[in-house]
Design a protein that fits this description.
Elements (H helix, E strand, L loop, with lengths): L1 H21 L3 E4 L16 H7 L3 E2 L3 E5 L5 E4 L1 H6 L7 E3 L3 E5 L4 E7 L10 E7 L15 E3 L5 H18 L1
């Protein structure tokens, strides 16, 4: 019984400390509450301004929410020309999540006719692991932690473990 109590105690401690390590990736919502839309006529750089105010790292993800539109990841050349004929990635499901698996520049455009030309495009620069975010620079975008198991499951497991531990100890 003593071995069980000790094992349970260390399991609770491990899960508690592990939570801070699990939640290291973030999900950024492109366009905030308005989502991925054609920007106003006088604000065609809104998405690039937003992207430059954030610090993206490998493992982070960006979520595009939209209606009657699409999102494409393209080459730099296709980005400059608003060419949607050869995307590296395409989605039109209205709720697209794109996860960054390496550092570098990523080029996104709308696949809807004429939208890219009106400013619905964005360059995201993902930092390499040896780059550091400037001190004191906070992310201006909406972000939510992305969890492999989901926060509700981890919180529930932690709650159950603490409850069991309180009964045993």
């Amino acid at each position: 019984m003593a071995a069980f109590k000790t094992s349970l105690f260390w399991l609770v401690i491990f899960i508690s400390l592990g939570n801070s390590l699990v939640f290291s990736a973030f999900e950024f919502q492109v366009g905030g509450t308005q989502g991925w839309i054609v920007p106003p006529t006088n604000d065609s750089k809104v998405y690039n301004d937003w992207a430059s105010e954030n610090r993206f790292q490998i493992g982070n993800a960006i979520r595009f929410k939209y209606k009657k539109d699409s999102v494409m990841e393209v080459t730099e050349e296709d980005y400059k020309k608003c060419n949607s004929s050869h995307p590296n990635f395409f989605s039109n499901n209205g709720n697209t999540v794109y996860r960054f698996d390496h550092s570098g520049s990523f080029y996104f455009i709308s696949g809807a006719a004429g939208h890219c030309e009106k400013g619905q495009r964005m360059i995201v620069k993902v930092m390499s692991t040896d780059e550091e975010s400037p001190l004191g620079k906070k992310s201006a975008g909406y972000r939510a932690a992305v969890y492999e198991l989901g926060v509700s499951k981890l919180v529930f497991v932690q709650f159950v473990l603490f409850y069991v531990a309180s009964l045993v100890f």
